[in-house]
Amino acid sequence: MILKQVISEVIEHQSGVLESKSLGIQRYDLETIKLYDSFVLVISGVRRCGKSTLLKQVIKSKFKHSLFLNFEDPRLSGFELSDFAKIDELVNDQPPEVMAFDEIQNVPDWEKYIRTKQDEGQQVIVTGSNASLLSKEFGTRLTGRYISRELFPFSFPEYLQFTEKEANAESLNGYLDDGGFPEYLKTRDEEVLFHLMDDIIYRDVAVRYGLRQHQTLRQLAIYLISNSGKYYSQNNLKNLFGIGSVRSVSDYVSWLEDSYLIFSMPKFSFSLKKQIYNPKKVYCVDTALAGVNSLSMSKDYGRKLENLIYLHLRKARQTIYYYSEKNECDFIVVQKGQPIEAIQVCYQLTTDNLKRELKGLEEAMAELNLENGLIITHNQEDVFEVNGKVVKAIPAWKYLDKQTIDANT
């Protein structure tokens, strides 16, 4: 329970900060966000990726009178559902065009209040750092009445704009090392990424789900981000970390995914059963976060590049699988249940690895009836013909250009 005076002071203080603080570069997501009176806008994403900044950019660009409240403010610790009534009292004389609540998952039963405001016709935007909690609560209270958007750390074009660099092979390597977390790019202090990792593991997972085995959870998380681009199975993880059951492993991995720290990619198969029971590949939300917290990823540019391409496809809301039969192909992009693109990632093509890379694409393209394939490289461009099918090689810094992002969204 919070005093109304305290809530008023926090709102006034945060409003002043909102007006005076520079909002940095405009996020590309701002251009595509649509607001509707009958729908709540939900912005979710990993901690510290810029959700608050995007929320403020939406408010300042689209509304003249707003209410903004960030629930990570320590003065709001202990905020309860009943305290929302005090907010209504404070804005009663001049109702805002939009009510924007940042990190709202910190308030128990928050979705009941949001549903009430929606029924009143109030425009509402909320953000949160846990996909599961947001989707679960909205699924219960606001079925079909909310629009969900995911936000990630800076994309390559946003990184270029922030660092004032040109798109080329050198800046791509910088992006692979630096990642896209705004605070780290400002400070270049690795402690930022160490603390971020701790906050995700403990605040977004351990505390939220009441886990006592903090050390086991941390070891599992470090192991997974250290093996970005590699296969894992829940049974192997159970044995490796001495976790009591596969169900517990499944929960741990699922919670780390819900926090946006990691993503799992299944094997492509038209059989759902095979997708479920085959090993998955894991990727981290940011290459710098993985590199700083894992020595094995610090200088492995091949795996960093593969991780980066996965994130690019994931940001574009693509459905992605890996292909593995006699040979392997890194990514199969699927739309409406049908494969539309086969992509191989190879940092540098050589006479030693070209045949292997092409064979993986060739097998995938033949089985999935695809006429074209793509190899994404560090800085090589080429065209190959494989049994009447065309395979193009393109530098990643060109592939990740803004025009490519726009075409995929």
Helix count? Answer: 19
Strand order of the largest sheet: 9-10-11-12-14-13
**Separation of termini?**
43 Å
Helix- and strand-based class? alpha/beta
- In total, the number of strands is 14
Shape: globular
Q: What oligomeric state best describes the polypeptide chains here?
A: single chain
Task: Indicate the low-confidence ranges by residue numbers.
Answer: 403-409
Question: How would you characterize this protein structure?
Answer:
With 409 residues, this protein is an alpha/beta fold. It folds into 2 domains: 4-151, Rossmann fold, CATH 3.40.50; 156-408, no CATH class. The protein is built from 19 helices and 14 strands. The chain has helices at residues 4-20, 29-32, 51-62, 84-90, 110-119, 131-141, 156-163, 169-178, 182-187, 190-209, 214-226, 234-241, 246-258, 272-277, 287-293, 301-315, 354-368, 396-399, 402-408, and strands at 40-45, 66-70, 98-102, 123-128, 146-151, 231-232, 262-265, 280-284, 319-324, 328-335, 338-345, 372-377, 382-386, 389-395. A hairpin with a 2-residue loop joins β10 (328-335) and β11 (338-345). The protein is globular. The two termini are 43 Å apart. Mean pLDDT is 92; it is low at 403-409.
Topology:
Layout: H1 4-20, H2 29-32, E1 40-45, H3 51-62, E2 66-70, H4 84-90, E3 98-102, H5 110-119, E4 123-128, H6 131-141, E5 146-151, H7 156-163, H8 169-178, H9 182-187, H10 190-209, H11 214-226, E6 231-232, H12 234-241, H13 246-258, E7 262-265, H14 272-277, E8 280-284, H15 287-293, H16 301-315, E9 319-324, E10 328-335, E11 338-345, H17 354-368, E12 372-377, E13 382-386, E14 389-395, H18 396-399, H19 402-408
Parallel strand pairs: 1-4, 1-5, 2-3, 3-4, 11-12, 12-14
Antiparallel strand pairs: 6-8, 7-8, 9-10, 10-11, 13-14
Helix pairs in contact: 10-11, 10-15, 12-13
